[in-house]
Amino acid sequence: MASYKLSTLGSLVGQVAHFSMSGAPTGWLKCNGAAISRTTYSALFAVVGTTHGAGDGSTTFALPDLRGEFIRGWDDGRTVDNGRTFGSFQADAFKAHNHTYLIFDAQFSGQNNGQPPSGALNPVFNRTTGDAGGTETRPRNRALLACIKF
Questions:
Q1: Domain coordinates of the chain in residue numbers?
Q2: Residues whose CB falls within 8 Å of the CB of residue 25, separated by 6 or more in sequence, listed in order
Q3: Are residues 63 and 40 in contact, defined by beta-carbon separation less than 8 angstroms?
Q4: Cα–Cα distance between 56 and 58 in angstroms, integer?
Q5: Tens of pLDDT, residues 18-71
Q6: DSSP letter assigned to residue 8
Q7: pTM
């Protein structure tokens, strides 16, 4: 395991934080997936290594790319998200489900003040609803800049 070092400002090298500004503050890099120098950013490379990508495989390594992503806490043995490796990407998914409704055959003439007599409705067949919604599933959110401390 890598040793963790505090920066001069009290942040941990490799710490990811979100900022309410569009540019990375001094001492931080945008989490944009860029390949950066293993030498120039040796303290960061010592902590994260190639977790987010090997870069060119010898002189660079990749920063995490958090643009447009939601962060999910690592399972770390809890078995809620079994089999995930630390730092791995996971595509969107929906738990399998459907919505079914019944189509009825009305066997009454509308007597009894518009109410069907007891037992007058017989289900004929099931139908499943059509697709509804947008192009992604997401909770309410606010966009901030994710950065990593070097």
A1: 1-70+143-150
A2: 19, 147
A3: no
A4: 6
A5: 999 999 999 999 999 999 999 999 999 999 999 999 999 999 999 999 999 999
A6: T
A7: 0.72
